[in-house]
Structure formats: structure tokens, C-alpha cells
Amino acid sequence: VPTFSLYAASLGASLALIGLLTSFNGLTSIFASVPIGLLSDLRGRKQVLAGGMLLFALSSAFYTMVPNPWLLIPVRVMGSLGMIAVFMVGVAYMGDVVAKEDRGLAVGLYSTAMGLGFTLGPAAGGLLAERYGYRAGFWLAAGVALVGFFVALWGLAPKQRRSDAATPVTTVPMVTRLRLMAQEPNLLAASLANLANNVVFTTVFSFVPLFAASLAIGQAAIGSMFAGRALASTVTRLPTGLLTTRIPSKYLMITALGLSGLTLLLVAQVENPAALGMLMLVDGLAFGMYLTAGQSFITENAADLDRGTAMGVYNTAGSIGGTIGPFALGILAGALGLAAVFRVAAVVALAGAVTLWLLSARRSTATTPQESATADFSG
Question: What's the pLDDT tens digit per position in 323-355?
């Protein structure tokens, strides 16, 4: 719902509290992504996805009932948990039910649907809020999420039971398995790349509007610029999924990060509003490519036993970048200006591309059957 900050302000929330509420998405993701992914590995994706949709529905309804802004905090956490359970575990589910060679295409379809939802949802919520008040948008979100809950409950395939012969046997403690996964070169490389990509994403959304305003670009034009970026991101996702059937996902990830870095370097130099708008379109293309290719890389390479947990590690790294990056770059902006922010973020993106290239070339160091059961990132 696009009017959340306005609704919080109408309840008496200060700017500091609104900022804190916004940060809870990233903070919750940092601490909850791995446990939720692990839960989906142990209990099945269907239950976690259905639970996530129910949390979406309940949190949207609870937003309309809170009597003071501080009670928005637990509701925000509830909604963030739902977001992790649906968006992250949904990708892992695709990896479970689709053949390996088709997973990139499936993730492309899934991420395209997400992009369309993020486009249509804010538009519908904003119209309802303008005509009927802020709470109407939340009730719409609650209704849609409740429909999604029943779709997940009745429409998704349950966890497949493998025969004892086909089920990997491992006696490795869970903490050890997590440590081995975090040290696996390809998962580590993809996670660091995701951290870099989220630094770029939050840099664009936090600082490009300020930079555009300094060029005397009006609010309506800035809004149109970011709408174009979102559209470019959405239309890139399905073609990227198709490309993963011919080009390894990691090369598409590297290309996307390199393109993001070069785009930000150009943003630091631009003085023309039209040129900035074009660069935002390119950034949207790069983000859509990375989002699809990165998720495809994890689903294609993670073992069935640990796919949800691997997605959790990957998502946690991205959330760290998206949470810490804006804070650090905000300090830099105050000291050296916005152009310096874009240059540093560009270096982060290019460093992420190089890191992915170097680390993903290494083979897994697991040598025992127990260690091999924790990951399957061999290519």
C-alpha cells in the first residue's frame, strides 16, 4: 500500500518513527530469512507459503485497527514475515516443482508476476485511499491476501515424500550445515553479489530523487521516472528467465551488476533530466535481469534438501546491503555530496560482479557425503 507513511503520520507518527517502521522490513529479513527458509525445508513450502499469505492478510487488517502509531511496529514485523515467507519461499517452491533446465523460465514468470503486483497494487491502493480513506487500501490488500491464502492452501502441491533410498542421509548438526553452506564458494559469491545489488537498489531509491530535485525536476516527473524504471524491470524478467536456458545464470548476474555500476557512474555525471530518465530505465533493466538471474542461480544449484535455507542465506545478505547501505551512504552524502554516493555505489556493484566471477569459479570444498548433502553449488 503506497500510503503507509501518510497513514502512519495521520496516527501521529513522527518522521523518526516512520523511518524506524520502514527499516523493519530489512531488519526482519536479516534475522528471519534463514529460519523461515529452514522451516520450509523441514515442513514443506506449501505450509510456509500459506502461512505467509495469512500473515499478509492479518497484518493488512490490523493496520486499520491500531489506536496509536507505536502499535504499527508489531504489525509491520508481521507483514515483513509474510513477505519473506511468500516472496523467498515461493522461489524455492519453483525450484522444487520445475525441472532444473526450466527453473530460470519459471522464476522469470514468478518475478514478472511480482512486478505486476507491485505495479497494480500501489495504483489501486492509492485510488482507494484518495476516495475512501487510508483504511480502504489496507482492506483491499487484506482481501487479496486472503484469496492468496486459500489458493496456496488448496492449489499448491504438498511436500513430496521421497523413498528412503532417494532421501539424502545426513547426521550433520544444523548449525554445522549452515556454516558449511555459508562457506560454499558459489553460495557465498551469490550472496555477496546480492548484497551489492541491494546497495545499488536502495541507493537509487534513496538518493536519485534528491539528485533529480537538485536538477529542478518536478515531483510528477520524478514519479514518472520511477514508474518507467519499474516497468523496465518488470518487462525484463521473463526474457531473462528465457535466457537462463541458454546462458548460465551467473553470467547474467555479472552482466547486470556491471550494467548497474556503469549506470551509476553516468548518473554522477548527468545534468540533463531526459538523460537521467534514460539511465533510470537502464537501471530498471539491470535490476530486473539481476533479480531473475540471481534467484534462478540459487534454485538451479541448491540441493533439494536445503533450497529454502540457501534462499534464506542469499536473502539475508541482500537485506544487510539494503539496510546498512543507505545509512552509510547517507553519511557520505552529507560529507561529500550525492555524486560521491553514486560513485561509491557503482564501485560496490562492480566489486560484486568481480567477486561473483572469482568465487563462483571455485569448486565446492565439501569432501564427505555429509558435507556434500548441505549444498549442490558445483557449477
Answer: 888 778 888 888 888 899 999 999 999 999 999
> Cell 516497468 belongs to which residue?
231
Phi, psi angles (nearest 5°) of residue 262: -65, -35
| Side-chain half-sphere CA neighbours of 182 within 13 A | 12
Measured distance CA(226)–CA(209) in Å, rounded: 9
Cell numbers of 235, please?
A: 518487462
Q: Please identify which residue in the block is written with the cell numbers 512486478.
A: 115
Fold for the domain defined by 11-157+174-372: Growth Hormone; Chain: A; (1.20.1250)
Taking each helix axis from N to C terminus, what angle separates 89-97 and 15-43, rounded to the nearest 10 degrees?
30
Encode the chain in three state secondary structure: CCCHHHHHHHCCCCHHHHHHHHHHHHHHHHHHHHHHHHHHHHHCHHHHHHHHHHHHHHHHHHHCCCCCHHHHHHHHHHHHHHHHHHHHHHHHHHHHHCCHHHHHHHHHHHHHHHHHHHHHHHHHHHHHHHHHCHHHHHHHHHHHHHHHHHHHHHHCCCCCCCCCCCCCCCCCCHHHHHHHHHHCHHHHHHHHHHHHHHHHHHHHHHHHHHHHHHCCCCHHHHHHHHHHHHHHHHHHHHHHHHHCCCCCHHHHHHHHHHHHHHHHHHHCCCCCHHHHHHHHHHHHHHHHHHHHHHHHHHHHHCCHHHHHHHHHHHHHHHHHHHHHHHHHHHHHHHHHCHHHHHHHHHHHHHHHHHHHHHHHCCCCCCCCHHHHCCCCCCC
- The rounded distance, in Å, linking the Cα atoms of 52 and 33 is 12
- CA–CA separation, 37 vs 21, rounded Å? 24
What does the pLDDT look like over 5-52, one tens digit per residue?
778 888 888 867 876 787 788 889 999 999 999 999 888 899 999 999
Tell me the C-alpha distance between 177 and 364, whole Å.
14
